[in-house]
């Protein structure tokens, strides 16, 4: 194994009503709101995380773009990874909003590209990803300060860029994930950071290798990130106990109702998380320290890294060794687990924001 490069370590803002003490048991104090999500993001900033994901939903939670604009002046050093659904807004206006938020946060904006269905609308996978690709291409042009003369299936636009520009003068990095062939091809053409969901170390390595090959076909390189949950305690028994307690009041019907609220329930990535859960042992572990119980009540990333500080660190290092350069982590409750991870694991990770590393 070669010497590991610094890895970006991000936390999760829980804007999409995804915070529980016990999965499936709603708690009004943990519902998505300005004060609650503000506290999570400020805790991640205070604890030294490099970035924080601000997820986007429609039925779930509060608006990510409005929240990003509000929180931008309430953080000191952390980056904001703002989730934006392609096709949801008028593209030129979206470029102005993103450039403005980047200015407010001092040039520390990154963008999580979302390609799920629009609220109240369904589109087959292939055309949906064609729409996403066109939006990514044109959004990058506008945020790079370039004029647009683009005539595609979903974007038909001739326009000069807005005066509002990102602080760096260039488009913030696009983080993007998807597991269908159309999604992977879109990422290979237009993403800066390809995100994958929890899986075995070997399977994550296979995904990284595949995406490197796909990107090379377009004469591009990308970096690679893993979105996962984490449960870290002083001992492995305590961590496993916390995992068991998390699902102690969850029944299958409640979990299914929670999963069905998402707009991506039919995606290839969600299907893979279900397969992972079904292949796990009776205790929910699919391999050492990778527990799939979270996916019983979650449509997206459905597994957690569970263990004592040394075990969690070793698991993260194992993912780094197969090509992962960024982690987007979360845990229940998000405030408490943010503090625990920052105490037990983060000081032992060589980490830095991706934008401070060598550009692609």
Describe this entry's structure for a reader:
The chain has 360 residues and is of the alpha/beta class. It has eleven helices and 13 strands. An eight-stranded parallel barrel has the order 1-2-3-4-7-8-9-13, surrounded by eight helices. A two-stranded antiparallel ribbon has the order 5-6. The protein has helices spanning 34-46, 64-71, 91-104, 125-143, 181-190, 201-216, 236-246, 252-260, 268-278, 309-321, 334-344; strands at residues 8-12, 51-54, 79-85, 109-114, 148-151, 156-159, 174-176, 193-196, 223-232, 285-287, 290-291, 304-307, 326-330.
- Helix content estimate: 25-40%
Number of helices: 11
The CATH topology annotation reads as TIM Barrel
CATH class group: Alpha Beta
What is the strand content? 15-25%
Overall, the morphology is: globular
Radius of gyration of CA atoms, rounded to a whole number: 19 Å
CATH H level, superfamily name: Luciferase-like domain
Roughly what is the average pLDDT, rounded to an integer? Answer: 90
Please summarize the sheet with the most strands: 8 strands, parallel, barrel
CATH architecture label name: Alpha-Beta Barrel
């Amino acid at each position: 194994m070669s010497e590991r490069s610094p890895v970006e370590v991000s936390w999760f803002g829980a804007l999409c009503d995804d915070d529980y003490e016990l999965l499936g048991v709603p708690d009004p104090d943990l519902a998505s709101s300005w004060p609650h999500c503000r506290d999570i993001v400020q805790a991640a900033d205070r604890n030294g995380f490099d970035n924080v994901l601000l997820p986007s939903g429609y039925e779930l939670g509060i608006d990510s773009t409005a929240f990003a604009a509000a929180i931008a002046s309430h953080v000191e050093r952390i980056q904001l990874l703002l989730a934006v659904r392609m096709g949801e807004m008028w593209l030129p206006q979206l470029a102005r909003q993103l450039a403005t938020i980047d200015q407010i946060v001092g040039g520390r904006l990154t963008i999580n590209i979302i390609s799920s269905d629009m609220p109240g609308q369904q589109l087959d996978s292939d055309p949906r990803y064609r729409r996403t690709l066109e939006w990514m291409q044109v959004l990058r042009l506008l945020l790079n300060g370039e004029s647009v003369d683009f005539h595609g299936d979903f974007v038909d636009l001739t326009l000069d860029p807005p005066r509002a520009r990102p602080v760096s003068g260039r488009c913030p990095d696009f983080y993007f994930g998807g597991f269908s062939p159309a999604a992977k091809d879109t990422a290979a053409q237009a993403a800066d950071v390809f995100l994958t969901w929890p899986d075995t170390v070997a399977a994550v390595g296979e995904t990284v290798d595949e995406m490197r090959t796909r990107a090379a076909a377009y004469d591009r390189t990308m970096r690679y990130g893993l979105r996962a949950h984490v449960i870290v305690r002083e001992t492995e028994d305590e961590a496993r106990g916390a995992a068991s307690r998390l699902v102690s009041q969850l029944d299958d019907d409640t979990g299914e109702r929670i999963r069905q609220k998402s707009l991506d329930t039919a995606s290839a990535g969600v299907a893979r998380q279900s397969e992972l859960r079904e292949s796990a042992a009776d205790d929910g572990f699919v391999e050492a320290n990778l527990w799939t119980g979270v996916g019983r009540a979650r449509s997206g990333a459905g597994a957690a890294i569970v263990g004592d500080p040394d075990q969690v660190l070793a698991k993260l290092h194992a993912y780094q060794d197969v090509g992962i350069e960024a982690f987007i982590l979360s845990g229940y409750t998000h405030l408490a687990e943010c503090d625990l991870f920052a105490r037990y694991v983060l000081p032992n990770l060589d980490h830095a924001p991706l934008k401070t590393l060598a550009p692609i």
